[in-house]
Amino acid sequence: MKEYNIELLFAIIRLKGYINIRVSGYSMNPTLYEGDSITVQRADIYAPGDILVFRYRSTELLVHRLLFVKENNEKFPCFICKGDNAFRLEDIGTKDIVGKVIMINGSQIVPWPSDLIRLSYEMSKQVVRDGYDLIKIKKSPQYEQYIGRIKNIYKEREEIRM
């Protein structure tokens, strides 16, 4: 993500309820592309499939999809997120979430079915099992199924971009 003053973003979203920011990077392709404008809204509840914007490594922002929520020992939720075009999982706390994406370039987001969210998580586990050999992973039937499903969801959006 482009570098932002994160504390200022938190203040603005508390005041206005939403913010508009630009995307940088490719970890959420084809859902989000470099330069896309996203509208981010604070929420009380986040659900699997939501695209979250959150503080990462104290000074950065990431925009990744929420795969599932787990409770930790102190009964505070831990949010497990992953980029649609990435393999690494991030676990984040509530205090680091700026909000969830509600619009992309002025259009409503396309929801993901629960089985595709599970498949995304399975891809992360497959990466670990295959020793982070991305060439091997990208040739696997599971990866082809995952990418094919994503491309089908965004086919119309891709046709509009061309």
How do the SSEs run, as a string of H and E? Answer: HEEEEEEEEHHHH
Q: End-to-end distance, in Å?
A: 24 Å
**Whole-number mean pLDDT:** 87
Query: What's the number of extended β-strand segments?
Result: 8
Q: What percent of the residues sit in helical stretches (DSSP H or I)? A: 25-40%
Biggest β-sheet description = 8 strands, antiparallel
What characteristic shape results from the CA principal axes? globular
Structural class: alpha+beta
Cα radius of gyration in angstroms: 16 Å
Count of discrete alpha- or pi-helical segments spanning 4 or more residues: 5
Oligomeric status of the shown chains?
A: single chain
Strand content: 25-35%
Low-confidence stretches: none
Summarize the structure in words.
The structure is a single chain. Helix content is 32%, strand content 30%. It is built from five helices and eight strands. Strands 1, 2, 3, 4, 5, 6, 7 and 8 form an eight-stranded antiparallel beta sheet that branches. A hairpin with a 3-residue loop joins β3 (51-56) and β4. The protein is globular.
